[in-house]
Amino acid sequence: MVNASANPRKKRRWWLIPVFLFLFLILLAAAAWFYDGRHAELEVLGQKEVLLEYGQEYTDAGAKAASVGRLFGELDTVIDVYAYIPHDLAELGEHQIRYFCTYLQKDYEQIRIVRVVDRVNPRLELTPTVDFNAYAGTGFQEPGYRATDNHDGDITSRVVTEIRGDTVYYSVSDESGNEAFAERPIVYAPTEPVIKLLGEDNYVMEAGMTFEDPGFRAYNERAEDVSALVTVEGEVTPYLAGEYELTYTLETGFGGPVTATRKVFVNPVGVPASVAPASRTIYLTFDDGPGPYTEKLLDILKKYRVKATFFVTNQFPEYVDLIAREYAEGHTVAVHTYSHDYDYIYSGVEEYVEDFMRMRELIHEKTGEYTNLFRFPGGSSNTISRITPGIMTVLTQAMPDMGFKAFDWNVPSGDAGETRKSDQVYLNVIQRIQQVDYGYAVVLQHDIKEFSVDAVERIIIWGLNNGYVFAPLDMTAPRTPHAVYN
Ligand SMILES: [Zn+2]
Q1: Ligand 1 centroid to 148 CA: how many Å?
Q2: CA of residue 208 to ligand 1 center, whole Å
Q3: What is the pLDDT of residues 22-71, one digit of tens each?
Q4: Predicted TM-score (pTM) of this structure
Q5: How many CB atoms lie within 10 A of CB 401?
């Protein structure tokens, strides 16, 4: 028997399961989405309120937008931000810069406030008073003024003037209340001829500085400038200490000349007094170098640790660098002359000083120090300088006035003329050292003469064996001054 009865059980609908699952997931996603609350956050970058001076350039820092949610946080989504910058942003006042963005169908907006202010004071310029601004009869005459402002432009018409006493006061304010002030003295024109000195009536200066007359103005009785008619008498010798007087004279048609005087005080700088050394001392001094034998000499001095003094020149420029070595090895470097050209240096005080300063500058270049010690070419007693009568008399006064100390010598080695032999130089020096009874000897030699340099070692040995010390000259060392014959 066949059981053919059909199975009455209902057929199960398995396919519904994924459908329900799918719907459930959608529901879950929707819930997550609502919980996330995704939105844009629009942020103004930089200051939200900006204070800007009028005329100052404005650079907008911009704004940025980000996609933000509670569940998924910040996403990397790019959201375009648009800015609206008002076209009159440069003008005074309060401006709003607006920033917009749209995200997920929603609009966002942020604002930045820009305040443009004018806090700069206007400029108030007075036309200078040339001579006078007030005249008998008419009183004060305005020479003119001008006021300008960075925002309001020309505001000359807003200037207010007020006369109080002998002064005119000016003030002006711009649209923003910024103010400027000025004042000018009232200067009455003379009613008779007058000379007005510019600068100090008593002019004080130090010897060696440049004197420049501060000048003057002269006016006639109609207050016209007649400065060109003034004559000046008197002269200032700026390198020589003393009291000088300059007289300014204006001839007038009536009542005689009008004069004014200025006193010029040239103060001496001076030099320290000389002090005799405590022990018997030999000061070796060498003129006219550096030259071809200077290095040899420096080696000898170094060997015996003897310090000397070099009165230097620029006669042999190829050796002039040796000044640096002289200085570095503890010798005194002092000015002799730049050119050693007698005809030039003694042709006038100005020429002498020019040459001197040139050498002093060169020494400074080589040593880093300005020396105030020097020796006149030929010494203070030279007569070659008679090409300019009296020049040594002036220079021996003027140089210490300017702070420079001159050194002569009391022991001539004879190497400049009377001998050409090393032995004779040696004998001259040691004999004359014994003859000078000051207790100190200032020896003159020339390191551009080989035979003279060759005598130095024997002189040193003799000195050391006879109880002398050797020292370089300094500002308080003995000057051994010569008599002045010109
Ligand atoms: Zn010389």
Answers
A1: 67
A2: 24
A3: 999 999 999 999 999 999 999 999 999 999 999 899 999 999 999 999 99
A4: 0.67
A5: 22
